[in-house]
Amino acid sequence: MSVDVSNIKISPVSKSKIDTVDFDQIPFGRVFTDHIFQAQYKNGQWGDMEISPLEHFSLHPSNLALHYGQSIFEGMKASADKNGTPLLFRPEEHARRLNRSARRMCMPEFPEELFMEALTELVTLDRNWIPDRPGSALYIRPLMFATDEFLGVAPSETYTFVIMLLPVGPYYSKPVKLWADTEFVRAVAGGTGEAKTAGNYAASLLPSKMAKDRGCDQVLWLDGKERKYVQEVGTMNIFFVFEDHIATPELDGAILAGVTRNAFLTLLRAKGYDVQTRKITINEVMEKGQNGQLKEVFGSGTAAVATIVEEVRYKDEVIKFDPEAAEVGPMLKQTIEDIRHGRQEDLHDWVMRVE
Ligand SMILES: *Cc1c(COP(=O)(O)O)cnc(C)c1O
Predict the structure, then answer these.
(1) Over 50: is that where the pLDDT of 2 sits?
(2) DSSP 3-state helix, strand, coil percentages of the chain (rounded to 5)?
(3) Is the pLDDT of residue 153 over 50?
(4) Domains (ranges, CATH) in the chain?
(5) Distance, CA 347 to ligand 1 centroid (Å)?
(6) For a substitution probing ligand 1, which of 76, 143, 236 has the most ligand atoms within 8 Å of its CB?
(7) Residue 198 · residue 102 · CB < 8 Å
(8) Residue 37 — pLDDT band, cuts 50, 70, 90?
(9) pLDDT band for position 5 (50/70/90)?
(10) pLDDT tens for residues 238-289?
(11) Is the CB of 199 inside a 6 Å radius of any atom of ligand 1?
(12) From the CB of 248, is ligand 1 less than 6 Å away?
């Protein structure tokens, strides 16, 4: 595949809308920066790359992504050091995962070097939008979707790839209650659970709503075959702090391989914890939660970094955790935030400075 490198046309806005935003109260996912990166795929290659003012798309009603779901995305963050230099957290990992999702969904890959170039140009242009409040960040949302205008279940021959940026405040910071669902499943091995693709999230909406109706915040997904093994939560992977070790479910072909999950595993190992990736049954969780051998549960994901779990419900059983007593989750969150803002040494080479 030939690639048109270093050919991004930049058309800045004539007037930024940054002054209309209250950075102390940013509703998550609703405030966008001035610009968007766009690239078009046709005739087997990416081209028409530009950074321009964010505007609405115009789509034909037969747009293939709308009908058959060929759509993938990523979620990552930028922060700034004390001099205002933008810092990206593990951008290559996100570029690689985007391309793994693309392969699974029969979509073209977006070359990693082009991804990095587009990202750095865009973040540089909108760098004033990186919030400096604690816990705040610039959320980065790359998205690729099919654009063929044709009603047929077949891979599209044309695609649009965009990157949009959203300033966000502290997210999901309150402890959550989880509903271990025995009826619905998120994904099965062989399905699309490993891909960050639109349909996975559509499929989760009804079970999530039902969990909320039962007084929980999110679904704790169990495996699709036996409803026995714990998989993950909404847009987070999950960690269990047992008495003598820490565990997270092993990647089983259905679980999304979180970049934060991977960072947590690395940090915990570097700090000398016994960390295991293994099969974890919901019965083990409930039993050890009851008898005190399970000390703490938390989720990992880009948006909230670590989210403390205060309750897990499974059938008629409930286990509860005192959020104030959580140690490992908050420690990991603090470590990642410190590395991300340049306050702690980046021993694992995770942060990319955008000069
Ligand atoms: C994005 C996502 C995660 C977390 O991945 P990170 O790379 O850590 O943000 C976990 N599970 C699902 C289903 C996700 O979509």
Answers:
(1) no
(2) 25, 30, 45
(3) yes
(4) 3-168 (3.30.470.10), 176-340 (3.20.10.10)
(5) 23
(6) 236
(7) no
(8) very high
(9) very low
(10) 999 999 999 999 999 999 999 999 999 999 999 999 999 999 999 999 999 9
(11) no
(12) no
Q: Is 196 in the pocket of ligand 1 (CB under 6 A)?
A: yes
Closest alpha carbon to 317 in 288, 280, 290: 290
If phi over 0 gives left and psi between -120 and 50 gives alpha, with beta otherwise, what is residue 315?
left
Residue pair 220/238 in contact (Cβ under 8 Å)? The answer is yes
Instruction: Choose the residue to mutate in 264, 302, 350 for probing ligand 1, maximizing ligand atoms within 8 Å of C-beta.
Output: 302
Q: How remote is the CA of residue 278 from the centroid of ligand 1, in Å? A: 18
Whether the pTM exceeds 0.90: the reply is yes
For tokens 């083990």, the residue is: 284
Question: What does the alpha-carbon distance between residue 3 and residue 7 come to, in Å, rounded to a whole number?
Answer: 10
CA of 9 to the centre of ligand 1 (A): 31
